[in-house]
Protein: Glycerol kinase
Amino acid sequence: MSRKISTSALAKKHGLSAKQMFQRFESASFIQRIDEHWQLTNAGIIAGGEMKNHSKYGEYVAWPEALSLEQINAVSSERAKSLSATAIGKHFVISPIKVNHLLAELGWLEKSIKGWKVSAQGLRVGGIQNEDEHSGIPFVTWPGRILDNISLTSLIENVLETNDNAVYPPQGKYRAIDGHFLASQAELSIDNWLYLALIRHATQRRLPIDETLYAGFYLPDAKLYIEYWDSTQTSDDDTLKKEAYYKHGFNLIELSADDIQNLDEVLPRQLLKYGIQAY
Structure:
């Protein structure tokens, strides 16, 4: 078994700078930048990468000393290819129909009369709009790096129930009419209001970003999030979520304590802006 060495050491072996080596690994989707740190992807683990800890410099990625530039370049070339829903489905062993539905759940696709169209969020992760040359039906292709996208792989693991180590937010103590558990009475009021208004919604749905953050409410028909901000107890997660919503441009309705007392007036007006008619 080949011994493991740091990225800098492997770069030196191949006559490259550490920066060039990191760029090659990123191009091959072996690593990705999360919270200002390099993290291994599934592809990186398959290539032999391993997270190690140095007593002085902290956590770093180690690689097999025998890992060649040819191997890395071959993966980079493969990752550069555009992938259809069929190709993605083949990789994850699921149907292309389910792939498109999952991509739509992430907010990356929008259903057309026939076929699919890439959304603004889908463009951000590299989606490319296409059209069948014979039928004119729209479809979307994706960069190879999509196979290692944390939001997609986490969703697929959730659907297939293959991740035994998944971490979920704690269950709330207030039970809504529809069976959802909420963390506060304010959120309970929102959930019950949505249910009685016959508006399809999810609670504690993970945001489709690399960071592990969960939305208060998600309305899939409008790709819309609803958050109740409790001004009396702002948490670090709330701050991070606010930043994420603005950074990624997600559709968002923000509610305060005053709004909770007037949901019948506030929510119909806000929802209408996103094409949802409550009454």
Summary: The chain has a mean pLDDT of 88. The first helix runs from residue 7 to 13. The chain is about 40% helix and 25% strand.
